[in-house]
Write a structure and sequence with these properties.
With 569 residues, the protein is α/β, with parallel strands linked by helices. 38% of the residues lie in helices and 16% in strands. The chain is built from 19 helices and 16 strands. Strands 3, 4, 10, 11 and 12 form a five-stranded mixed sheet that branches. The protein has a five-stranded mixed sheet with strand order 7-6-8-5-9. Helix 6 links the parallel strand 6 and strand 7 (192-196). Helix 6 packs across helix 14 (353-367) and helix 16 (440-456) crosses helix 18. The longest helix has 32 residues, at 483-514.
């Protein structure tokens, strides 16, 4: 066993549960059987008493719960939760297996995890009607706290085919992996998985596995990803990095994959629906106040410092770990009132709860982590009753990208011939000669795909690139046309391809709006390549000729281009 290279704590040491589930040795590969075959905890009634135990995990979103509890593990007088009549005991539990045990025994009615983790446990928890999980609240989306690190030679998600990927068994990244593969036209069967026991901080983690010669990529928390890539550049091989390793994709770009939620036991929900609703209202108020504390820390520095030091003590075991606590906050995007309404209530949105459940469980069944589909319930709140005390919940979200800056970034990449760098996925649609319209009935499948990608990778730029066929230009060349004629023909083709790019972009945005999924137009940038990049420079068949007439969508990561991106508050 090699000595571990890093003991930094972040995101969550979520699922050390494997060490209690599996026989493990350095000589044998970790396996990942369904939890339903591993967990045999007897179901008990929720223990009565004034105080309710609420689990936390090491994640920035849980600061909202801490603040609502009065910056204390036990509910403080005058706090948001105290005003609602609660007496809560916040307990950090990064071992999800222990959370499940306490939940099933009745020691806590709550579960705290990612949607992937809740789905992973759904089959075993649905065996008893009392413990069926009801998802009641979305805290956050991971927005930079998790990443995929790859070695040299892997430039896009498609390049993962046939490669070995290290990932924590039962951890928060399994559905992240499955979604990326699906969007690249691959499946979990197209790669080899190297399961690890832990997520971070031990000798059996993805961060350690990627040092092995036969491991090509790893899913990691961002501190480990930064270490392995020489602080987010390209690994040099020094100071704990892997030579040639880079972050191919983080949740700053793929910011609609990992959702952190609270769930509650069905029997507790049915008996105490009003109390559960009050808990959710407290979380909404806590989130609002937390964002205000961070956004205007100079107005009440002592209150901010108290929040940070208390959060560091509860989440990181050290009141002095304030910088790490601030980093935890920066790694997540709070859903808040608007996000919860959309997540639970908008059936048309590609990243809503029910769609995520179907997506996650389908991939888990393929992988053998679930034996069958296990429906998840949601609370179905009347959100009008949760508005009290909340402000700014009716405003329209601002564009997330600075349009002019994005155009400059894309133009710079285009001029340098590096537009393909940072590409995650691509999709193309073809058109006929003289076609200027792109009706939904002909392009619905492609448009739906783009809407899904735009919704999932909200931190990525989507280029809409028009290409024309060079056949007419080649014929003029052959006939000895003048340089002016050739220049005009080339420019006309460029203008035509730009107009088609704009028409396709507008058609996609209109298609999404009609489907009830409004897209952020600032995420899209149009390019007219004209005849500069034909698939077939000398088309010899009608098929080759038609293939040159296309519009290509590329989903490009631009995390390094800070001037182009406006982070959400």
């Amino acid at each position: 066993m090699k000595p571990m290279r890093c003991k930094r704590v972040c995101r969550c040491l979520l699922n050390s549960l494997v060490c209690m589930l599996l026989c493990w040795s350095t000589a044998a590969a970790i396996q990942s059987p369904p939890l339903v075959t591993e967990i045999k905890t007897a179901v008990g009634e929720v223990k009565p008493g004034k105080s309710i135990t609420v689990p936390l995990i090491t994640w920035g979103g849980d600061m909202a719960t801490i603040l609502a509890n009065g910056n204390s593990a036990k509910t403080a007088a005058g706090s948001i939760f105290a005003k609602q009549g609660f007496s809560l005991n916040l307990v950090r539990q990064d071992d999800f297996k222990k959370q499940i045990d306490a939940y099933m025994r009745g020691e806590s009615p709550f579960l705290r995890g990612t949607m992937g983790m809740i789905n992973l446990a759904a089959e075993v928890l649905n065996q008893d009607p009392r413990t069926r999980p009801v998802v009641i609240y979305q805290l956050t989306w991971s927005n930079g706290g998790d990443c995929l690190v790859v070695k040299s030679g892997i430039r896009s998600a498609r390049d993962l085919k046939g490669k070995t990927v290290a990932i924590q068994a039962y951890g928060p990244h399994v559905d992240y992996l499955a979604k990326i593969l699906k969007d690249a036209g691959l499946s979990l069967k197209d790669i080899d998985i190297r399961w690890t026991r832990d997520l971070s901080g031990t000798a059996d983690t993805p961060a350690e596995a990627i040092f092995e010669k036969d491991v090509d990529a790893a899913f990691l928390i961002i501190p480990d990803g930064l270490m392995l890539t020489s602080n987010g550049t390209v690994g040099t091989g020094a100071e704990g990095s892997v030579r040639g390793a880079r972050i191919m994709l983080s949740t700053k770009t793929a910011n609609r994959i990992i959702a952190d939620v609270y769930a509650v036991r069905s029997d507790f929900f049915q008996a105490h629906r009003d109390r559960v609703e009050a808990f959710v209202h407290g979380l909404l108020l806590g989130t609002q106040e937390l964002k205000a504390r961070f956004g205007h820390k100079e107005k009440d520095l002592s209150a901010y410092q108290s929040l940070i030091s208390t959060s560091a003590a509860i989440l990181l075991d050290s009141a002095q770990a304030t910088a790490d606590a601030e980093a935890l906050y920066g790694d997540c995007e709070f859903a808040g009132f608007r996000g919860n309404v959309r997540f639970f209530g908008d059936e048309k949105w590609p990243r809503g709860m029910n769609r995520l459940v179907n997506e996650i469980q389908s991939s888990f069944i393929t992988l053998g982590l679930l034996g069958r589909n296990s429906p998840l319930e949601q609370a179905r709140w009347d959100y009008d009753s949760l508005r009290e005390g909340l402000t700014g919940i009716d405003d329209v979200p601002a564009p997330r990208f600075k349009t002019a800056a994005v155009a400059q970034v894309v133009a710079r990449k285009q001029a340098m011939g590096t537009l393909g760098e940072g590409e995650l996925f691509s999709l193309e649609i073809n058109f006929q000669p003289n076609q200027n319209d792109f009706p939904e009935n002909l392009y619905a499948d492609g448009f739906r795909r783009i809407v899904d990608l735009a919704s999932t990778y909200g931190g990525a730029v989507i280029t809409v690139e028009g290409h024309s066929d060079p056949h007419k230009y080649r014929r003029l060349e052959k006939k000895g046309a003048t340089p002016i004629e050739l220049k005009r023909t080339r420019q006309a083709a460029k203008n035509l391809s730009m107009n088609r790019s704009i028409a396709v972009r507008d058609s996609v945005i209109r298609f999404a709006k009609d489907a009830g999924v409004p897209l952020d137009q600032s995420q899209f940038t149009v390019i007219g390549h004209g005849i500069d990049q034909p698939k077939y420079p000398q088309p010899r068949t009608k098929e080759e000729w038609l293939s040159n007439m296309r519009v290509v969508f590329r989903i490009i990561q631009i995390e390094a281009e800070d001037e182009a991106f406006i982070p959400l508050d």
